[in-house]
Specification:
With 175 residues, the chain is of the alpha+beta class. It has helices spanning 5-37, 42-49, 53-66, 89-116, 131-136, 155-174, and strands spanning 70-75, 81-86, 119-122, 128-130, 148-151.
């Protein structure tokens, strides 16, 4: 699959975004170093970012487990194995699409649950529980012991969830 310059830049931005979401500001630093320099060893990343080698390795592991980084193993002249960390647009694109699909799936499940299931709230502390929890506790709040009252379905919540599903569908079509 061949990518245009626009798609490659979009994938780079996605890589930076995902790295930060998965590993915080240090993940962003590492992702920036990789974007700027290409495939790097963990030692090189540590030198560029100023992060400890242990932090770098931990974050590389997080990003690799998330599927947005891959490693190339290469033996040097002395027989040691060097690990070069990098990414490519196809990997980032696939992971982002998968994450969006997961988000849509979970939002749809929650939307369906919000439409079809009853909820109860405590008149004392305001805690909100499902019908099952209310029944298990004989309609007594599990937090404070107050009375649980059946809640009307929230049209605002349902509209918000529907809007989110549509928004994520549009985002997934753009990428």
């Amino acid at each position: 699959m061949e990518f245009s310059d626009l798609e490659i830049n979009r994938a780079r931005r996605l890589f930076l975004f995902l790295a930060q979401k998965m590993a915080g500001d240090r993940g962003l630093q590492i992702a920036s170093a990789i974007i700027s320099n290409g495939f790097l060893t963990d030692e090189q990343i540590s030198e560029i970012t100023g992060l400890s080698i242990t932090s770098v390795r931990n974050i590389l592991s997080i990003l690799r487990n998330a599927g947005i980084l891959h490693v190339i193993r290469q033996r040097d002249h002395s027989g040691w194995t060097l690990y070069y960390w990098g990414t490519d647009p196809l990997i980032v694109h696939r992971v982002f699409k998968d994450r969006i699909k997961q988000a849509i799936k979970h939002l749809k499940i929650y939307l369906e649950y919000s439409i079809n299931e009853s909820f109860y709230y405590c008149v004392e502390c305001g805690v909100r529980v499902s019908k099952d929890v209310a029944e298990l506790n004989n309609y007594v709040c599990p937090v404070c012991g107050g009375t649980l009252i059946q809640e009307e379905p929230s049209t605002e919540l349902i509209k918000f969830l529907e809007m989110l599903v549509e928004k994520y569908k549009k985002v997934s079509l753009l990428h």
